[in-house]
Design goal:
The relative contact order is 0.20. The N terminus is likely disordered. The two termini are 28 Å apart. The chain is built from 9 helices and 14 strands. β13 and β14 form a beta hairpin. It binds adenosine-5'-triphosphate and magnesium ion.
């Protein structure tokens, strides 16, 4: 998805997420090699969104994927994702997908010592799409805001050097501008918010692009649904 001027200068390269109609709201996808934060409460769709991004990369764009998690269990995740027709086991057997269970302490160590296991996996499997699900437990390792911010910046720098397009997920029970600016006050290329509010006796789902650098994006909040094909966004709602 390269867009080139006549002087062959690459002006923008987009990495489609595969989330229906979402890509059209962000000029075709995430910027290549960007770090993107997906924020939402429990059950808001963070993991499904992140895996859909990886799955699209593997099956449509021949981009290998690494999923690093502190919380999800492999067998359970593979089983859950099969309900969308996403066979992660098969992709793992084809060396296109790597599942890595990691502790927040290991990530902390990685920042001090350099790449470690993650870097060697990225090189060995030629990983182009990366997910860390979630960074909440990692940031909890740091007690004061400054240390948290420094660690987050160090993590983003490491990810940038890996040459991957990344999604980091973050747990935030009550999304409002104030809590975001205090707890997720760091330098990512984009912030996507997933809402799952209760209205009377039912819960609805919605998505908002809070920021995306270098992108003319929509400022609206859109309805989101999860069905047998994964996540999709209803245009115009
Ligand atoms: N096959 C499916 N069809 C429709 N909806 C589904 C399906 N599978 C899961 N869901 C919905 O998606 C929700 C889980 O989404 P997901 O695991 O991505 O949330 P999450 O934000 O990662 O949550 P957590 O913070 O607990 O990790 C379920 O609670 C359910 O409402
Ligand atoms: Mg999850």
């Amino acid at each position: 998805m390269k867009t080139q001027t006549s002087s062959k200068k690459v002006i923008s390269e987009r990495v489609p997420t595969g989330v229906k109609t979402f890509d059209s709201l962000i000029e075709g996808g995430f910027k290549r090699n960007s770090v993107n934060l997906v924020v939402g409460g429990p059950g808001s769709g963070k993991t499904i969104f992140a895996i859909q991004f990886l799955y699209t990369g593997m099956v449509k764009y021949n981009e290998n994927a690494l999923y690093v998690t502190f919380e999800e269990k492999k067998e359970k995740l593979y089983d859950d994702m099969l309900s969308f027709g996403w066979d992660l086991k098969k992709l793992e057997n084809q060396n296109k997908f790597v599942f890595l269970e990691y502790t927040p302490e290991q990530v902390k160590k990685l920042l001090v010592e350099g790449g470690g296991i993650v870097e060697s996996i990225i090189e060995k499997y030629k990983i182009k799409r990366l997910v860390i699900d979630s960074i909440t437990s990692f940031s909890l390792l740091y007690s004061d805001e400054l240390a948290k911010k420094e660690a987050s910046l160090a993590l983003f720098e490491v990810i940038n050097n890996w040459g991957c397009t990344a999604i980091l997920t973050a747990q935030e029970n009550k999304i409002d501008e104030r809590s975001l600016s205090s707890s997720i006050d760091f330098e990512v290329d984009s912030i996507i918010l997933l809402y799952h509010p209760r209205v009377d006796h039912t819960r609805s789902r919605a998505i908002e692009i809070l920021k995306m650098r270098g992108t003319k994006h929509s400022g609206r909040i859109y309805s989101l649904s999860i069905d047998k094909n994964g996540i999709s966004i209803k245009p115009g709602h």
